[in-house]
Amino acid sequence: MMNCMRCGQNLESGDVCPTCGFVQSKAEETILGWFDDARRAENERRYETAADLYKNAADMGLLSAQLAYGRLLENGRGVKKSIEKAKEYYRSAAAYGEAEAALALAGLLNKTGKKEDREDAVFFLRVSAELGSAAAQFALAEAYRLGEIPVTNENQVEYWYAESAKQGYEEAALKAGELYLSNGQESYAKWFFERAASFSRAAQRYLRRMQNVSAAEPPESRPINHFASLCDLGQTAERKGDNAIAFSLYGISAEAGYTRALYRLGLCYENAVGTPRDTVEALKYYHEAAKGGSIEALLQLGACYRYGRGTECDESRAFSYYLMAAEKNNARAQYIIGECYLNGEMVAQNMRLAISWFERAAMQGQSDAIARVNALHETMSEIYNGAIEAQKSGDHAEALRLYALVAEMGHSAAQCNAGYCYQTGRGCEKDAKRALYYYGLAAAGGSIVAKYNLAICHARGIGTPLNFKRARALLDECMKAEYAPAAEFLDQMNRQYMAKLGQRLYAASTVVYRRGDVGEAIRILVAAAKCGNLRATYMLACHFEFGDGVPRDMERADALYASVAAAGLDAFRNNLKSGYMRERKLLELSGKRH
After folding, report:
1. Helix or strand holding residue 125 (H, E)
2. What are the tens digits of pLDDT across the range 352-383?
3. What's the CA gap between 492 and 501, in Å, rounded?
């Protein structure tokens, strides 16, 4: 495997670089030969010869030759001086990541005095620094320190001096040392002064004063993500129309796996920005960016599989990518998912889900989603009002049809009304399960009335097995919302429950009594009486009257008899008046004693 001699990209096969289109083959030897001969000629001050050879190699795409020829043009050596042509050659080399060419171009642009050129100069200075030019890093630190470029991070000056110094730029080492010294970090300062001592008397003086200080290399400081910065610079270049430079910067950042750069590189291949259009290559980069967590890449993958860009159409796969982006709270993806459900595209039509996704996107301010939500809600209101009018006129079948239609769109009141129609058989045959379905939809949407109706269904086994626990939970929610009927129904449920419990306990007490366990029977009767079971209360009174299993207590027995009679047990009241039950019980107990 070899690298392209122009842009440095790997060549898997063939002589033509797929990135920049440069033809390799045997031309490489010739071009490099021209460049070597040009350097010898320049060293021997045969500038005209050097200029001709540099130009030949530069025009064939050799970056180092473009830089060298640009310098000859800038200084008028061996060729007519031309700042504009020098800029062209510098720009061409900078477009493929030549750091020194970017620095040289920044210097030329800075000299014009024009505002737009000064902005470009800052841009190329930053590019050169990010690409690793020690001189550019020093110049950038100076520009930040002098306030020529706004500082976005308080450590930027210190950082760029240090980066330049670590590459052997002695003036940067001196500046970095002075900064650390001013911050009281003498050991770090000495480390930098030692690297500036060979050229700077000031550094030597500092070192003489710091003889007793131990030098220490400062820890790695990274206030700047170089790959993010390169990607930002690429986007800046793209906005300015410098597509080749943008593509190159994205490529450098993408090689390190920076997610946003991978996505931007995919866009370049798809839209022919700085490179020939290649949708297959674009798809590859989108996949890489999506693996890195890029939501934008997920959207692009959805579009590629939806419309067959760089691959065959695959609607199922397209929808899955859109859904992944939507679930990551991307408003655009949420709107697209809503459109899919609305129109039944790539997925089965579902108005309720469509509106749900539109609303999620609208909450984030997505303008198309807001418009959709408003239009759909207006439509739902019109249909719902039509259903109300049909119901008032007695056309329950039409009312149900309209309720069901708007219920599927997520209208909670319509869902509740549709459920009631199916529960009561208005406009249709009774269908408890269908009623339960619509109540469930409305309750999930927050309808208190639907939750109340659903609680009744669970409590009475309408369309579902009895589930008092679920019914109580729903009624609790209704009571928290201060829905008055919920408290009444819950009280009714409690009374019914206690009545049934009392009946079961009373029945159990008779079984236990027949077994001869009078004490346990009385304990169960007490529990049943507390549940309000009158038969249990009556039998308990009998036990106290005759002293059966408990000490005889006529006062307590009469009180219990009175409570039973007051509750309306006429048969027992008559028995008490006649004394029949009392006499029978006395005879029974007398027989047991003898």
Report:
1. helix 115-130
2. 888 889 989 999 998 999 998 888 888 888 88
3. 14
